[in-house]
Design brief:
Number of strands: 4
Helix content: 40-55%
Distance between the termini: 25 Å
Number of helices: 3
Strand content: 25-35%
Structural class: alpha+beta
Length: about 80
């Protein structure tokens, strides 16, 4: 998971699964940018302090949501 702290209580990430998880948890998306040269997007969210970010990452890694997302990716590879 690649994410970068940019300001107090904001995080920018290009990880689509983590971004969806943050949205699902109710964190507001405040900015989305498409990186044309890489064909990727970044998402910026308001979160709490840095300790909250560490907790969020651990919750995400241990969540059923990540299992679900990985299964979607596996099924997409079949089609």
């Amino acid at each position: 998971m690649k994410s970068k702290k940019i300001k107090n209580n904001q995080i920018t990430t290009d990880d689509l699964a983590f971004s969806a998880y943050l949205k699902m948890k109710g964190y507001p998306l405040i900015k989305s940018n498409k990186i044309k040269s890489k064909g990727k997007s970044t998402f910026t969210f308001n979160i709490g302090d840095e300790d909250d970010l560490k907790v969020l990452k651990m919750e995400f890694i241990n969540s059923d949501f990540l299992v679900y997302y990985n299964e979607i990716r596996n099924l997409k590879k079949l089609i």
